[in-house]
Design a protein that fits this description.
With 352 residues, the protein is of the alpha/beta class. It is 35% helix and 17% strand. Strands 1, 2, 3, 4, 5, 6, 7, 8, 9, 10, 11 and 12 form a 12-stranded mixed sheet that branches. Bound molecules: iron/sulfur cluster.
Length: 352
């Protein structure tokens, strides 16, 4: 299913509740800029089943249960967890490098997605090996490409997460072309990532380079895949139909659990200030604790989580401020007025 995280700023609720769990940060890759660094903690498999039960009990209607890591396909008890989530009627999302998507895994995922909807989100930062290797594990391009291909062929819904930095910013058009060929249903451009290269230089990409490629792709063949991407967001906000009130961090229905059992408002806001509590607290109490955080995330048009990280890095802060100015300028150029504006909050990163 295609998915963009949105919320209603008037109620402070996410449109579709979304729980993200990193059972552990174990991974067989060592990608540049990965922030999933822990000290070997993990949530035990029985506890994972209870988290699924609690999440199901908290949400009467549709809700997403999302595994990210580390590498979810290396989690202890992974198949019990995902089958349990699917049997409970939760949508299943899983963010993976594709490194463990072998025949057996594809068969099992096929079985799970026969029971529910959702996405397997494959992280891949280039349309070919030499580009992908600039930020991800060397030699991993073909593994990820083939994982996408096999999953799509097996009827598993697949999204592609593309972290942009200066080294791959001109490759986005080619990557979207490949995503189209492979049958990916959603392409996420993660352009706020605080990636430093192997020499330590900041690699925040240039939006002026990204936007024309997204515009071309959106006009040609990828409108659906790029819904609420930065270029689509500019068009939508410029249309005057929306009143965008910031991002969805701190919204009721959105939480991120880390391997040490802490719960935060978003995977991009892992800090004491954004800690909602622990897995021993009820979801009701966790979201009550998070309600004041919404103020922190209001009235900006770039990812506030990254912005928080930027307070410790002035160069990064300046880059994000520049991005936001550019987005505002572009919106102003297309802006039309409308009597009825839908109040909306949206995640500018689109995915995790
Ligand atoms: S924009 Fe950033 S901080 Fe806000 S919800 Fe998305 S990832 Fe989280």
């Amino acid at each position: 299913m295609k998915y963009v995280m949105k919320g209603n700023p008037e109620t402070g609720k996410l449109n579709l509740p979304h729980l993200i769990v990193a059972q552990s940060y174990n991974c067989d890759y060592a990608c540049i800029g990965c922030n999933a660094v822990g000290n070997g903690e993990s949530i035990n498999p029985r506890r994972m089943l209870k988290i699924v039960d609690d999440w199901r009990a908290y949400n009467m209607g549709d809700a997403i249960f999302h595994l990210k890591g580390g590498e979810p396909l290396m989690f202890e008890g992974i198949w019990d967890t995902v089958n349990h989530a699917a049997c409970k009627g939760l949508y299943l999302f899983m963010t993976t490098s594709g490194s463990k998507v072998d025949q057996e895994a594809v068969k099992r995922l096929q079985g799970v997605y026969d029971k529910t909807d959702g996405q397997v989100i494959v992280s891949l930062d280039g349309s070919r090996e030499e580009i992908n290797a600039l930020s991800r594990q060397r030699g991993s391009f073909e593994t990820a490409r083939s994982a996408i291909e096999t999953l799509v062929e097996s009827g598993v819904p697949v999204a592609w997460n593309y972290r942009v930095h200066r080294g791959n910013q001109e490759d986005i058009g080619d990557a979207i072309r490949l995503a189209n060929e492979l049958g990916v249903e959603q392409f996420n451009v993660l352009y706020h990532a605080q990636i430093r290269n192997r020499n330590g230089n900041l690699e925040v990409p240039d939006l002026e380079v990204i936007l024309p490629q997204l515009e071309r792709a959106r006009n040609n063949r990828a409108r659906d895949m790029l819904e609420w991407s930065v270029v689509d967001m500019i068009q939508r906000l410029g249309s005057g139909k929306y009143d965008c009130n910031g991002c969805t961090a701190g919204f009721r229905g959105f939480a991120y659990i880390t391997p040490d059992g802490n719960v935060y408002s978003c995977p991009n806001t892992v800090s004491e200030k954004h800690r909602l509590g622990t897995i021993d607290d009820s979801f009701e109490n966790l979201f009550e604790n998070g309600k004041n955080l919404r103020e922190v995330h209001k009235e900006r048009l770039v990812c506030k989580g990254e912005l928080e990280a930027a307070t410790k890095d002035k160069e990064y802060q300046r880059k994000l401020d520049e991005e936001e100015e550019l987005i505002k300028e572009k919106i102003a150029k297309t802006e039309t007025t409308s009597e009825e504006r839908e109040p909306i909050a949206v995640c500018f990163n689109r995915n995790y």
